[in-house]
Protein: nucleoside-diphosphate kinase
Amino acid sequence: MAGNRTFTMIKPDAVSAGNVGAIIKMIQEAGFSIKAMKMTKMSAERAGQFYEVHKERPFYNDLCEYMSSGAIVPMILEKDNAVEDFRTLIGATNPKEAAEGTIRALFAESIEANAIHGSDSDDNAEIEGKFFFAKTEEF
Ligand code: GTP
Ligand code: MG
Structure:
């Protein structure tokens, strides 16, 4: 059975463009409740750990630089079928391919600066949530 939690992070481009409020509104209106949230910043090294699965990809260094370029807003979210429903809400990685009305279609600047992250499995949602939050910070 699909789990009911996922992890997300509003990325530096969307934070610096002032889109945090609009994105959180869309997330809540889609039926997700926020179980943990903060505004913070990653070093390039920490961004590299977060995206370690991509370390052999040609865009890895750029990705780490971009993800550490400004503030981010990580969150743990709860809803039935959370991982899949959240990936639907954010849309495709490349905003040019993202469905109309999705968060990336509305707010992403490019395939790299694409506004928001969403976990791709229940296991990764748990790992990524723990990367940012202590159990005592979750509701
Ligand atoms: P996340 O939710 O952030 O994990 O995105 P995703 O699951 O839709 O895509 P993926 O995990 O494949 O890639 C992780 C991140 O790397 C993307 O969200 C982009 O920020 C960046 N990225 C992916 N593909 C490319 C690419 O071809 N070029 C560049 N410059 N960045 C990319
Ligand atoms: Mg991914």
Notes: Residues 122-132 form the longest helix (11 residues). The chain has seven helices and four strands.
